[in-house]
Amino acid sequence: MVPKVSERIPSVGLGTFRLKGEVVQQPLRDAIRLGYRHIDTAAIYRNEKEIGSILQELYRDESNQLSRSDLWITSKLSPYDMENPRASLLQSLSALQTDYLDLYLIHWPAVVRKVPTNPMHKILRLEAWRALNEAKREGIVRNIGVSNFTPNHIQEFLHETDYGIQGIFVQMEIHPWYWRDAFEIQTKFSKHSLVLTGYALLAEGKLSNSSCPEILETIRERLGITRVQVILAWVLYKGWTILVKSEDVTHLEQNLAADKMVRLLTPEDCAAIDAISSEGEEEKRCWDPRAVV
Ligand SMILES: NC(=O)c1ccc[n+]([C@@H]2O[C@H](COP(=O)([O-])OP(=O)(O)OC[C@H]3O[C@@H](n4cnc5c(N)ncnc54)[C@H](OP(=O)(O)O)[C@@H]3O)[C@@H](O)[C@H]2O)c1
């Protein structure tokens, strides 16, 4: 039996970073119409209010047959609000016009405006983890997790809190030039039923420029799919879920369809994509938490 959306995170989610304010409205409407059921937002994306009102509009229109329980909504605690996790969560719930979130993440392992070695980061991370666990117990969030945390940051929750990390969700940058840290996290915490979600899968434009590796073109041609679909299917093949942002209906459609292309990839294809980067020479493209103590 296929699990209900509320029971398992959908494999492909709509990213909404940079879709600030009203810009999010059309891509969100298009995505829901196409069948997206996971929406990823964050307090710092400044679009929770607009997402909340579009969703209300979509629920009201009976022809959509859409209700809150059909969706998986993720939001994140802002690094500006690390000192007020509960108030920040309540604000996200109110903006999104919902009684609960399917997933709430600590967006970043540090608080803003402090050097990475400041001891306050760790104090606030542990405090935020306590607040998220209590919110989960209360039922206003169904699942909790972290984003952009290193294995050491995650380990602290295991060793230095009473809450542990069972069923933790981890969202992080993943693409062919940077995937081994995700693999390390998955391996290290596998017995805790960790769920990994990748973002920036197109490596911030690297896929579309002239340095795009030949192997992606070879696989794309053989399978008759797009280069982006090859990458998305490669991440899904590893058992991870994905987020992609697009304002283009064709791209939205292609990205959602990547889920059906996983079975086309062979283990050899995946190994060849793994080998696009070498261990020790990975190229992280987004913000880097490794200096945060
Ligand atoms: N936790 C974090 O710290 C964090 C950080 C970054 C992102 N995220 C989440 O992950 C989501 C995805 O990451 P992202 O938005 O940075 O980057 P992304 O989804 O990897 O890439 C977005 C770019 O790729 C293009 N694109 C999308 N699908 C395409 C396709 N099929 N073919 C060609 N181009 C395509 C989009 O252009 P078009 O609009 O023209 O299609 C857009 O310019 C975010 O929106 C956010 O929800 C989380």
UniProtKB/TrEMBL annotation:
Database matches in SUPFAM superfamilies: NAD(P)-linked oxidoreductase
Chain ranges of the NADP-dependent oxidoreductase domain: 12-277
Molecular function via GO: oxidoreductase activity, acting on the CH-OH group of donors, NAD or NADP as acceptor
Organism from which the protein derives: Amylocarpus encephaloides
Keywords: NADP, Oxidoreductase
InterPro entries (alphabetical): AKR (IPR020471), Aldo/ket_reductase_CS (IPR018170), NAD(P)_OxRdtase_dom_sf (IPR036812), NADP_OxRdtase_dom (IPR023210)
Protein's name in the database: Aldo/keto reductase
Record site: Lowers pKa of active site Tyr: K76
Family affiliation: Belongs to the aldo/keto reductase family.
Coiled coil spans: none
Pfam families: Aldo_ket_red (PF00248)
Active site: Y45
The keyword Transferase is assigned to this record: no
Residues reported to bind substrate: H107
